[in-house]
Specification:
Chain lengths: 342, 454, 221
């Protein structure tokens, strides 16, 4: 017994996250360079570029390196490889909280940070700058002749009643790879038992697993899959080109609300630039009306208005629970057992 | 406490000092009490967290499985934004969590608390244990939950500010009350002091003011003292009066007898002797008179019995009384017209001083001359000027005449003690003024100027 | 003049009586307040000499007694006390003047004269000497209705001579009576005053004769 536990521990320590690799690095150059800012982020570069450009209008001497990675790679880069970044932007709230909890984030105080309401920041280290829905995106084509579901239960019913039409045409995050997917899944499981029933149905019809929201949306619009579950609503809404092919649902039983957040690592080389960028980001995020430079749902827009169906993910140590090794193993085991039935 | 400073200040200082000490003690008690409460509540929530984890430890397939409930950590986050650390061990083997997190010593007890340092922060840790059977073996699982103490510190800081506010408020209010109380306690004393200082110089009646019991001995002592002072003063006045009477009456007898005798004696040498005798009697009686006058003046100058009087009338009155003496030597006493000058003076002393100056002038003036008395009003003082047509002062510095028993060089044949001008000078100095002596510029004669401040 | 002397010291009282009788005054002596009150009620006095300290009471009560019995006899207080303490009380209670012990008799006379002049006015008291009208209090001699004011010494000299007409006064006697003891004057000074007085009297039938080696004498021709 003891030996097997020990083996498990060694396994856990030896095989954790894949080594950090830069997926893509975009450099926003300036004419006269007086400093550089390295931003590591999970957000798509296309979405984030306007924010960086408007930042450079105000600070024309700062060259910005934008490094796009997954949320787990951020953890690896910061906690294990000690890579130096100035700003960390992630949609994985639990990992951001863990970074701050374990002492990797520096507190930041400014007029801009004061704009952020108490529920939008933690320990003055992690600052939310969006509030985004976890949405269900449907292919209008695939649902022809069917009532469009408004709740998870309705989706379960439709999937059960039409197993052939949806066979292997359901997509969701591979929560083993995607930090955001894991966050959405754990929060769903925490909120309602319906998550497991839905997973059960997903497993029965056969589910495609994705790394990212954008790919799922692409596949829905292409007709490859009919249902994409727990997609970032903001990404789908942003896709005006495919608006007539897809249908975005904010489930009425409950809609998880995620906050994208930024933090400044304690070992940031360019603290001053990092502070300036953070202030710029927070000012855009928390002022009304929404600036054209800000591509995300604004923190102050009506979309975030309090409503019974909205379940915002609260920042706090509770998020650490599902990062626990046991907890994660158990959750992934259960998830695999339901989703990967065949 | 070495110097007997103000009683009121001493009492106030002691009361305020006690208030300060009480306030400090209050703050410290409040702080230690609230620290304990705050620490207790943090401990309770940490223990609740640890217990909820313990309750979710199970054995599956002969392995220990820990299913941390979401609330175990979220309950910690609901109270403060403090960082949370944990570790779960099977005896000394880490199952999950932060491997370097320090653990409190936990032996037989089911839980233990400790304050440690971790990741550059102060943390409060709790360990709780559970014994479970795994594959027929007894295993001990220890759950350790830790939380930083920033929330607690913030809470204590806020409490400290509050406590400080309460303490300072308490201190200020008690100080004000102390000052009010002290003032109230000392009011009878002040009233007594006011009634003592408000009294006239000759009012030595006992005090009958109602005073608190504690002050009764003081008032008694004061009354007995004023009584003794009164008796002593009247005794010394009586003594002076009695002495004067005793000395002067026999002198008067002898002098009168000598005068009678002189009328009857023909022989020149006997007449000379008799005249010398009369002169000696006059001199000694005058000296005695002036000494007594000076004693009385000294008694009175300590506390002047000032009244608002018409200075002109006062001087005219004094000078007119000397008219018969002046007329004996055919000396004209000329009083310049006196304007009405009201002054705040002791009239008896001023009249006595003027009498002494004019009497002195009469003594040194040749017969059939003139002495004039004027009052001159200046912006800051009133001058009383007495001019004669005598030989004037022979001293280089006439001011020496103001000394006691100093007599002018011209006065060897005159009867006098040399105290007249001294007495006058004393009186005017006691009034804030003085005497100025000089010889007249035009013609001969002396000039005495006495001045009073306005 | 008629005086009432209120004085408890017998020796002093006797001496004063002797001294004043030399000048031709009449003196009654009371040793206590009681007898003083009896005296004042039974006879008319020109002036009272009142000692302030008496065995049976304070001289001040005598003053109030006088005022109560509506006697307007002038009073000169005789005091052995300090001027400073006594002065006000004595004058306030109605004494006309006061004099301190021991006193020069010429000062006493001068004060008496001043008091009487103040109280009676000058007019009432004239005396005819030959063709001259003499007013002691006013200090004037008038001849045919024309007043001549005499200086004090001249007046005193005239008084002495006129009170005893035809009597020869030696220079030394006149010096004794005219000058106080602290004035060292030669007998020749008298001649000056005699000369002045003769000038005032010229035109009248009153003459002052010089008796060589003897003195002076006033007579009416």
């Amino acid at each position: 017994m003891c030996r097997s536990i020990l083996a498990a521990i060694i396994l856990a320590l030896a095989s954790p996250l894949p080594a950090f690799q830069i997926q893509e690095e975009t450099v926003f150059e300036v004419d006269k360079k007086a400093g550089a800012l390295r931003i590591i982020s999970t957000a798509d570069i296309d979405l984030f570029a306007p924010i960086i450009k408007s930042f450079q209008v105000q600070n024309p001497m700062i060259e910005v390196h934008y490094i796009g990675v997954t949320s787990t790679e951020i953890m690896t880069a910061i906690t294990q490889e000690n890579e130096a970044f100035d700003v960390v932007i992630s949609s994985a709230m639990d990992l951001q909280i863990k970074l701050a909890n374990d002492g990797y984030a520096a507190p930041h105080f400014s007029a801009a940070s004061d704009r952020v309401p108490g529920w939008g920041k933690w320990r003055d280290s992690v600052f939310a700058f969006t509030q985004e829905h976890a949405a269900i995106v449907l292919s209008l084509d695939a649902f022809q002749g069917l009532d469009l579901p408004k709740t998870r239960q309705a989706l379960i019913t439709i999937l059960r009643e039409n197993p052939d039409r949806f066979r292997n045409r359901v997509g969701t995050y591979d929560i083993r790879e995607s930090g955001l997917g894991y966050l959405f899944a754990t929060q769903d499981a925490r909120t309602s038992e319906v998550f497991w029933r839905l997973s059960e149905v997903f497993g029965q019809v056969g589910t495609q697993l994705y790394c990212c929201s954008s790919e799922m949306i692409d596949d829905v619009s292409a007709g490859d899959i009919a249902v994409a579950y727990n997609v970032l609503g903001s990404y789908a809404t942003a896709r005006a080109d495919i608006a007539d092919k897809i249908h975005i649902i904010q489930p009425e039983d409950f809609t998880t609300l995620m906050m994208r957040s930024a933090l400044l690592p304690v070992n940031a080389p360019n603290t001053e630039g990092a502070g300036l960028f953070m202030d710029h980001l927070l000012t855009l995020a928390w002022s009304a009306p929404r600036s054209a430079d800000f591509p995300f749902p604004n923190g102050t827009t009506d979309e975030t208005a309090n409503s019974a169906k909205l379940r915002p993910i609260r920042m706090g140590p509770g998020l650490l629970v599902f990062l626990d090794r046991f907890k994660r193993d158990q959750f992934l085991n259960a998830w695999e057992a339901t989703i990967l039935q065949n | 406490m070495t110097s007997p400073a103000s009683l009121r200040r001493r009492l106030a200082t002691q009361l305020i000092g006690s208030a300060a000490i009480l306030a400090a003690v209050l703050i410290l008690l409040f702080l230690s009490f609230s620290r304990q409460i705050a620490q207790n509540s943090q401990d309770n929530i940490l223990l609740a967290s640890a217990t909820s984890i313990l309750e979710n430890i199970s054995v599956r397939n002969d392995e220990i499985v820990v299913d941390i409930p979401y609330s175990a950590f979220s309950m910690l986050g609901s109270v403060s934004n403090d960082r949370v650390f944990y570790r779960i061990d099977n005896d000394d083997e880490l199952l999950t969590g932060y491997s370097d997190l320090p653990r409190p010593d936990i032996q037989a007890a089911t839980n233990a608390f400790a304050t440690r340092s971790y990741l550059d922060a102060d943390i409060r840790t709790v360990s709780a244990l559970k014994v479970i059977a795994v594959n027929q073996r007894i295993e001990t699982v220890i759950v350790t939950i830790a939380q930083t103490q920033e929330g607690l510190t913030d809470q204590l800081n806020a409490l400290f500010k509050q406590a400080l506010g309460i303490g300072v408020g308490f201190f200020i209010i008690s100080s004000i009350l102390a000052i009010i109380a002290v003032n109230r306690v000392f009011r009878p004393l002040q009233d007594l002091a006011t009634s003592v200082s408000g009294r006239g110089p000759n009012d030595l009646e006992p005090f009958n003011t109602a005073v608190p019991d504690e002050m009764v001995p003081l008032v008694h002592a004061l009354n007995s003292f004023t009584g003794r002072l009164d008796r002593s003063l009247s005794r010394s006045e009586d003594f002076i009066t009695e002495a004067a009477h005793r000395v002067r009456t026999p002198l008067a007898t002898v002098r009168t007898q000598a005068e009678v005798f002189l009328r009857r004696v023909r022989q020149d040498n006997n007449r000379t002797t008799l005249k010398d005798m009369i002169r000696a009697i006059d001199e000694s009686s005058r000296a005695a008179g002036q000494l007594i006058d000076q004693a009385m003046v000294n008694l009175r100058t300590d506390v002047l019995d000032r009244k608002e009087v018409n200075l002109g009338e006062c001087i005219v009155d004094a000078v007119q009384r000397l008219q018969p003496i002046a007329s004996l030597r055919d000396i004209d006493l000329k009083l310049a017209p006196m304007d009405v000058h009201f002054a705040h003076i002791d009239p008896i002393l001023i009249q006595n001083a003027i009498t002494n100056i004019v009497d002195n002038a009469i003594k040194y003036s040749p017969p059939e001359t003139e002495i004039s008395v004027q009052i001159i009003s200046e912006s800051d003082k009133i001058i009383i000027r007495i001019l004669d047509q005598g030989p004037g002062f022979c001293q280089d510095d006439p001011r020496t005449l103001l000394g006691r028993f100093v007599r002018g060089q011209s006065s060897t044949d005159k009867i006098g003690s040399g105290l007249g001008l001294t007495i006058a000078n004393d009186v005017f100095i006691a009034h804030g003024g003085g005497l100025r002596l000089y010889n007249r510029q035009e013609g001969t004669g002396a000039c005495v100027e006495a001045f009073l401040p306005r | 003049m008629r005086f009432l002397l209120v004085e408890d010291n017998e020796k002093l009282a006797q001496a004063i009586q002797d001294r004043m009788e030399l000048d031709g005054h009449v003196i009654d002596h009371a040793a206590t307040l009681n007898s003083a009150e009896e005296f004042i009620l039974s006879a008319q006095y020109d002036l009272v000499l009142l000692d302030i300290m008496l065995p049976d009471g304070d001289g001040r009560s005598f003053l109030s007694f006088l005022r109560k019995s509506q006697k307007d006899t002038p009073v000169i207080a005789v005091t052995a006390r300090s001027q400073v303490s006594d002065r006000v009380g004595i004058l306030d209670l109605g004494a006309d003047d006061y004099i301190s012990k021991p006193f020069d008799f010429s000062e006493l006379e001068a004060r008496c004269r001043a008091v009487l002049r103040r109280r009676n006015g000058a007019a009432s008291n004239t005396q005819k000497i030959g063709t001259i009208e003499f007013n002691r209090l006013a200090g004037t001699v008038s001849l045919n209705g024309v007043d001549t004011a005499l200086r004090n010494k001249e007046l005193r000299l005239f008084e002495i001579l006129a009170d005893h007409p035809n009597i020869i006064f030696s220079k030394s006697k006149l010096v004794d009576r005219l000058f106080s003891y602290d004035e060292d004057v030669s007998e020749n000074a008298i001649e000056v005053y005699i000369g002045r007085l003769r000038k005032h009297l010229s035109g009248s039938n009153v003459v002052i004769t010089t008796i060589r080696g003897m003195g002076y004498r006033l007579s009416v021709e």
